[in-house]
Amino acid sequence: MLAYANPTRFLRLARTLTPWTLGAGILLSLVGLYLALFFAPPDYQQGEAMRIIYVHVPAAWMALFVYVCMAVSSAVAFIWKHPLADIAAKASAPIGLVFTALALITGMLWGQPMWGAWWVWDARLTSVLILFFLYLGYIVLWGAIDEPTRAARAARILALVGVVNVPIIHFSVEWWSTLHQGATVFRADGPSMTTPMLIPLLVMAVAYNILYVAFLLIRMRMEVSERRLRTLRLGLEGASS
Amino acid sequence: MRTFAALFWRDLVLNIRSSGGAALSAAFFALIVVLAPLGLGPNAATLKALGPGLFWIAALLATLLGLERMVQQDVEDGTLDLFRLSPLPMELIIVAKILAHWLTSGLIITLLAPLLAPLLSLSFDAVPTLTLSLLLGTPGLSSIGAAAAALGTSVQRGGMVLAILVLPLNVPFLIFGASAVAAAQSGNDPSQALIFLAAASLIAMVVGPLAAAAALRLNED
Prior knowledge:
The structure holds 2 protein chains of 2 kinds.
Chain A: H1 7-39, H2 53-80, H3 83-115, H4 123-144, H5 148-176, H6 195-240
Helix pairs in contact in A: 1-6, 2-3, 2-5, 2-6, 3-4, 3-5, 3-6, 4-5
Chain B: H1 2-17, H2 22-40, H3 44-62, H4 67-76, H5 79-85, H6 90-104, H7 106-116, H8 126-151, H9 159-169, H10 171-185, H11 191-218
Helix pairs in contact in B: 1-6, 2-3, 2-7, 3-8, 3-10, 4-8, 6-8, 6-11, 7-8, 8-9, 8-10, 8-11, 10-11
């Protein structure tokens, strides 16, 4: 792992891994979607409309998972001052934002036929919406500071303060109100879901994870190139003046 | 301790005497409370139902004022470099600043709120809870704000950025604060919400200074 902290080695590895992860992610999503649409049985209560959860639930998991990854990279950057960790955190944020938006939008599409309303102020919806704004604030902070090293330092702290706050916010919102159905998959007595429904869900979750890695690698390579360009440009300006 | 007192006093005087000072937060808070009925209509029942939330939203927004001033000037005019040389750890310097900010925003709001309660038809029984909830919650708001203010020192004209960073983090205060007041108003026991509010505030008072000090230290190049 530490060997790949070297940006050149990382870039070489990332270049090889990008097409494979991207291909595997897309392929697995297609398999997952096929299973979700044709293999999984319709729900006896919710009918065909419940199939949207195969897109929705993994997206909601990823929304949280990517935030945790962002915070872990920030902590690594904070402790070891490693630039690649900052880049990983920065590159994760927009991906997490998209997963969060996907979870919100599919949730609304599901809520309309099920609850009869596009939006309900229930605990989990509200937490995810606030998570969306936390991502947004993080991205805005990166954009608001011109110099990348300064922006990285500020963003690290914001991500860490955010991750301390996420459980508190979640708990407070939970306490505030709950209408949403309880957890179905992660329960002490095992998932309360039939296997034909669980398989497509897990396939989709794995697909999303691989896609996250693929997009993360692409964005990180972009960011490294951008920084190199910036250094070159600054060097040119320094030479001409 | 003498350094701490001197620094606290300096910040307090600066907060009071510079550009509107403590009156600014108070006036802003009062204005939100006064504007709400103009937008929502003067129906007493509606205002009574919305009052607890409105007071807390006003508190969240009013404590944003003055945050930008908290450390920005010290960074710009080089006072921060002197702070670094002082024997006082940066965390305690931030605590002094939070205290000065709270005295000129949170405390003023807390004292003002009971006077404004009749404007939103808040029931008389809920007024002590409103005061207590603001007293417990506003130090937490100032602490979270300090962390964001320290992060914002690298941003030019960071006012709006500051609001976007702070407001989502302040959600627990809004929820517990407004619930406590609403509970008291409907005759229920507000103590559960107040305890959680105090807990959120205490966590913020630990995390806020640590994060703010880390942010200021990272600015040294």
